[in-house]
Specification:
By secondary structure, this protein is an alpha+beta fold. It has a single domain, classed as Cytidine Deaminase, domain 2 (3-Layer(aba) Sandwich). It is 25% helix and 26% strand. The protein has a five-stranded mixed sheet. The protein binds zinc ion.
Amino acid sequence: MHSEDINFAKNARLNAYSPYSNFQVGAALRTKSGKVYLGCNIENHGIQGLCAERTAFAKALSEGEKEFESITIVGSPMGKEIIEECMPCGYCRQFISEFVDRNFKIYIVGKDNSIKEFTISELLPYSFKL
Ligand code: ZN
């Protein structure tokens, strides 16, 4: 765990566009080469918005990144400093599983910077495959 990723994700969440949920989520996606890509949730009126995790992956993948180490996720109600544990949704779990190996780490930040650590295979033991 790279502890600076907590602050990266906290800062990224401040860019969230979340007028519908009033909940801000930030993600810091770390590549195996040590680069960090940030994401936030981006909601939308009528159609499925983007979660912070998928935003970060889209940025990294579109820059040519292929090897990923971990993602750190921070969530809080709009305008508050209270961090609430924010587990990836089912869509994000399936999306992430496409691009990582089974030991890819997912760090969920909670109160007082507590960390819960999972691998993608723990969060999605039986992923869909064509
Ligand atoms: Zn999601």
